[in-house]
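Regression test case RT-17, inverse folding.

Input:
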């Protein structure tokens, strides 16, 4: 049963890695990076650096200034805004709920995985594996919604200020979003490993299968 033990340990490490990556992503401010071109003049580089910014789920950092909180999408202040802006706030609200919820699900899944490993229960291992796959899908949904929100927010900015005003602006996604993608992969991998562990344990309990003790 050495294979079973290896699967369970790897799944547990993958869940811990997933939690660490997602926690770092949610807490950091490098999800969305906006860089302004220097315009080809002497004062361009300094001005472009001041206009450039990077943002996260909770705040935005512009130039050398300190980070300022974003508009709280959970309040009712958006009622007087346009329909398009309200839609953007709804997307932001969804991301702010989904990704922290994913962190909670990872912790719950890790506890369930520990209990199912100690109990050597096939149904519990199957349940926990599916639970982690569901959590990975939730994380994927949160990241996908954030990407859609970012593109729509840039399009709304171009509509309000004119396309010429944003021609020198380059947008990209930073290392915070990369951490979230890594967390999604690690969580899905943990779920797959737990399902494989359940299958291995089920095969070992069939009549005629060799038995051994995992220490």
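Golden output:
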């Amino acid at each position: 049963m050495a294979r079973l033990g290896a699967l369970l340990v790897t799944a547990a490490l993958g869940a811990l890695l997933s939690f660490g990556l997602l926690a770092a992503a949610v807490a950091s401010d490098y999800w969305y990076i906006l860089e302004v071109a220097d315009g080809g003049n002497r004062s361009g580089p300094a001005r472009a650096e001041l206009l450039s910014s990077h943002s996260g789920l909770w705040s935005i950092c512009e130039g050398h200034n300190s980070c300022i909180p974003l508009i709280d999408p959970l309040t009712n202040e958006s009622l007087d805004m346009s329909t398009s802006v309200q839609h953007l706030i709804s997307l932001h609200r969804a991301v702010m709920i989904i990704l922290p919820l994913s962190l909670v699900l990872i912790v719950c899944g890790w506890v369930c995985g520990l209990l199912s490993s100690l109990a050597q229960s096939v149904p519990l291992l199957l349940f926990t594996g599916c639970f982690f796959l569901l959590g990975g899908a939730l994380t994927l949904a949160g990241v996908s919604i954030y990407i859609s929100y970012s593109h729509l927010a840039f399009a709304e900015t171009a509509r309000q200020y004119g396309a010429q005003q944003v021609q020198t602006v380059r947008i990209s996604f930073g290392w915070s979003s990369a951490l979230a993608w890594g967390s999604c992969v690690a969580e899905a991998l943990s779920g797959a490993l737990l399902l494989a562990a359940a299958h291995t344990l089920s095969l070992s309990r069939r009549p005629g299968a060799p038995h051994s003790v995992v220490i």
